[in-house]
Amino acid sequence: MESVNEDWDTVRTVLEGETAAYALIIDRHQKHVGAVVGAHVPPQYAPEVAHETFVRAYRSLASYEPRKPFKHWLTTIALRSCTDFWRSHYRKKESPLSDFSKDTTQWLDAVCFTESESEFERLSQAREAKEILSLVLDMLAPLDRMILVMTQLEEYSSKETAELLEISSANVKVRAFRAKRTLKKLLKKHGIEGA
C-alpha cells in the first residue's frame, strides 16, 4: 500500500508542475514495464516500446485515478504500446520460408519429412521451436497475439487479460479461441502437427 501512496503522491507532484518528479515513477516501475514489454515484443524493440510506454503514461497522467494501483494502470499502457508496435511493424501476412533462419528452415524440413517421433523429439530444440512460435505468432492480428500470449504463455486468466487490455472477458475468450485455431492452422501449414 505504501508504494500505491508513493505513486499517487508522485503523480500529484508531477501534475502540480514539478515534471522532474516523473523520473521517480520511471525509476520505480522501469523493471516492471521492461518485463511486460520484453514478453510481448522482439528484444531489439523492447527499449523503444518501454520508452514509448512511459511517454504515453506521462501524457495521460491526468487521467490516472488512484482507485486502482498505478502499476496496473501502467501495465495497461504498456500492453497497449505492445499492441500498437505489432500494428505498425507487421502487416498480417504469411511469412515466406525465406524469412526463417537457416537453422529454422532445416528444422522445418526435418519435421516435414521425418517419420519417427524420436527423430522429431531430437530435432525439437527449444531455440528453434521458440523462433518458429514467434514467427507464427507474428502472423496473427496484434490484439489476438497479445491475448494468446497472455492467456496461454503468461497464464493470465481471461478476466485479468480483459482488465489489462480494457476489453470484455467474452471478447478475450472468443479471440483466444479463434487465435488458437488460426495458430494451429499456421503451424500445420509449416508441417507441425498436433500443436
Give a description of the structure.
This is RNA polymerase sigma factor. Residues 26-91 form the RNA polymerase sigma-70 region domain. Keywords: DNA-binding, Sigma factor, Transcription, Transcription regulation. Helix 2 (22-38) crosses helix 3 (46-59), helix 4 crosses helix 8 (142-153) and helix 8 packs across helix 10 (169-189). This protein has 195 residues and is mainly alpha-helical. The chain has two domains: 2-89, RNA polymerase sigma factor, region 2, helix turn helix motif (Rna Polymerase Sigma Factor, Chain: A, Orthogonal Bundle), CATH 1.10.1740; 97-189, Orthogonal Bundle (Arc Repressor Mutant, subunit A), CATH 1.10.10.10. The termini are far apart. Helix content is 70%, strand content 0%. The protein has ten helices and no strands. The mean pLDDT is 80.
Give the secondary structure arrangement, pairings included:
Blueprint: H1 2-15, H2 22-38, H3 46-59, H4 70-89, H5 102-113, H6 117-123, H7 126-137, H8 142-153, H9 158-165, H10 169-189
Helix pairs in contact: 2-3, 2-4, 3-4, 4-8, 8-10, 9-10
